[in-house]
Amino acid sequence: MAQGTLLYAQSGGVTAVINATASAVITEARARKIKVLAARNGILGALREELIDTSKESAAAIRALAHTPGGAFGSCRVKLKSLEADRARYERLLAVLKAHDVRWFLYNGGNDSADTALKVSQLAQAFGYPLTCIGVPKTVDNDLAVTDTCPGFGSAAKYTAVSVREAALDVAAMAETSTKVFVYEAMGRHAGWLAAAAGLAGASPDDAPQIILFPERAYDEAAFLAQVKKVVDKVGWCVVVASEGIQHADGRFVADAGGGKDSFGHTQLGGVASYLAGRVKDQLGLKVHWTLPDYLQRSARHIASKTDWEQAQAVGKAAVQLALKGQNAVMPVIVRNSDVPYRWKIEAAPLTKVANHEKKMPANFLRKDGYGITAAARAYLEPLIRGEAYPPFGRDGLPKYVTLKNVAVAAKLPKWEE
Amino acid sequence: MAQGTLLYAQSGGVTAVINATASAVITEARARKIKVLAARNGILGALREELIDTSKESAAAIRALAHTPGGAFGSCRVKLKSLEADRARYERLLAVLKAHDVRWFLYNGGNDSADTALKVSQLAQAFGYPLTCIGVPKTVDNDLAVTDTCPGFGSAAKYTAVSVREAALDVAAMAETSTKVFVYEAMGRHAGWLAAAAGLAGASPDDAPQIILFPERAYDEAAFLAQVKKVVDKVGWCVVVASEGIQHADGRFVADAGGGKDSFGHTQLGGVASYLAGRVKDQLGLKVHWTLPDYLQRSARHIASKTDWEQAQAVGKAAVQLALKGQNAVMPVIVRNSDVPYRWKIEAAPLTKVANHEKKMPANFLRKDGYGITAAARAYLEPLIRGEAYPPFGRDGLPKYVTLKNVAVAAKLPKWEE
């Protein structure tokens, strides 16, 4: 074994392929005789010194990790603040890294994680501790700056497009005497990337989804209902895909309209699809069904995109290579060379350009009427859902997902308390 | 071409594999030189004399039909009443069948369709018209009598078990700092077959889903919440699968508890998962997510069960064979010869034994505490989700589902008005 260890941690909402990145990190490090520790529950495990010795996992388990959704070491939703505001935590982090001779820190997450990795690297430099920090991209929200796309997005996008195409065939068959409108709620609080991906399900404006509602456009109820009616009159039925983040012109989230309390004082959990379905029922008198796939859309490894899966592994492998070359404070990002044929490569981008930035959907991706996607959006999105990367299935009809042993490393420091 | 035509119609909620049955019907009939008409939108098309000439479809299209979800000719939710109460409709039906020289009528649906097929056959006999009526089984609800299982159920069951397993990995990864409870709402108004299928996702009581709520047991809120707390305390998180049909001890549907009107007088669409999630949040103070897959679960052809797909085709093929043998008023049903190895065959059952009966889940399928399934349930369910029957995918990353031409046959009778 070479001197020093590599610490890998997962952060934020997990995806269908973040473990593929983890698998690639471990595989690449093993090939180079580097010991890999993983933090339990992301940065929390690093702070708590709850570390996992990945060398206890078999090669078969690490291979299986590449087709297992979820976050094998646990993730967390913990955002570290500025170096000044959160100095104690950053220093504790550095102390843990030192105690375990961590020379390479790979943080697999979104904007916040890139920011954390950047700050840890700055602190290490200030203390003269030789540490290379790498941000590794991941998010179904597809909102990371610099990188052409984010591992995790392509698979969620494929799930969305496939599910919408399938449900639309159901609705079309039932519309004469039953459901005429179907509403699908897609993740995306700030940007409509996944809603846009649903647009891949249909080729013409009369194909489902006939209406997509994006957070990039103000929700105009009268216009929306008129559009639904127009589509039902013409096509006989209508599939609506709505981003969870759509807002009224005054900035109120539509999702907050439902919910509240019922007459018993019970919390009513609403959501965009439920709200829109209610309006269609009330105002248009049409039979309506709706779906909230929620976590299913980001964990659906069974319908992962091959492109996405390959990119998730590529950023993991590149992260180790960049780390070992000592390229500090960078993120391996996906660069698109061409749409047709689709060609991409990995490059290193400075974390300063990624941290705390948010990629918006380009304005030319939305159709003029705001209810669909343009050819430019298709050209961007389509390669990302291309190819199938099925997990192996067992004789029991279920995917063979691995559960790691996650053997703890003995702690060397006093217990940490916030 | 032989004398006489065969009329095929789809009824009720469609499934991921009802078109596989249609494909098998047409393929088998073509091999025997029998002309197949299909009714547009089920029995409605037969009443309205809106018939489709399937001979206009290419062999490739009929092959592709076998991997296309939805209902290719349209389905409907129309229940014919008794012969006495609905005599005019039955007589019109017979008139249409006669006008198109229909000698074999195949009705692909559930209990109601079996009943309709039975009554049409009785009326034809009364009028001395030579007609063979066959009911062809289909329903994700798995509630048809006599048959061991219903085509459509196995694929929805596989979707359910796979989705729950995947979402559980997501929840497990996030539980330390985020979502601790996840609620999945499964179809099943009267029987908990699909909720039971979710139980296949885990092998031990600590595996997800740790709690299943069945319509077969009264919903006891205090006991449920206590169980959620117990699981979260032990496992760290909890996945709940709830049948849409669960009821309070007094018979009120839990799904009806949410909903109602908001302060603007807008309809609030509730549902079981949304309600349960609200209770978990209010009473236990735990972060909760929930999903309502709705139509996604019954249209998910991309994760169809191979067993189910084969059985859907087998009943279609057998239906044609039975029809041509003149076996009137029967349904090809699936008979299970053994669990291990799983062996099944097709037999003919009299429609009188299927019509208007409903198969309940056996009492010994539910664990004593009512929150899980037994080994007997597993032995029954597991073969039904076995095997994958992926549809072909295009270069665009989407499944290649076919849209038929559905060429109309010229009407021979006056327009029909109810």
TrEMBL record, chains A, B:
The active site is at D141 (proton acceptor). The keyword Magnesium applies. Its EC number is 2.7.1.90. HAMAP family: Phosphofructokinase_II_B2. Belongs to the phosphofructokinase type A (PFKA) family. PPi-dependent PFK group II subfamily. Clade 'B2' sub-subfamily. Transmembrane segments: none annotated. It is found in: Cytoplasm. The record marks D112 as: Important for catalytic activity and substrate specificity. It comes from Pseudoxanthomonas indica. GO terms for cellular component: cytoplasm. Its main location: cytoplasm. Substrate binds at T139, V140, D141, M187, G188, R189, E244, Y295, L296, Q297, R298. This is Pyrophosphate--fructose 6-phosphate 1-phosphotransferase. Mg(2+) binds at N111. It catalyses: beta-D-fructose 6-phosphate + diphosphate = beta-D-fructose 1,6-bisphosphate + phosphate + H(+). Pfam families: PFK. Diphosphate binds at G13. The record marks K138 as: Important for catalytic activity. NCBIfam families: PRK14072.1. GO terms for biological process: fructose 6-phosphate metabolic process. Pathway: Carbohydrate degradation; glycolysis; D-glyceraldehyde 3-phosphate and glycerone phosphate from D-glucose: step 3/4. It is an enzyme of class 2 (transferase). GO terms for molecular function: 6-phosphofructokinase activity; diphosphate-fructose-6-phosphate 1-phosphotransferase activity; metal ion binding.
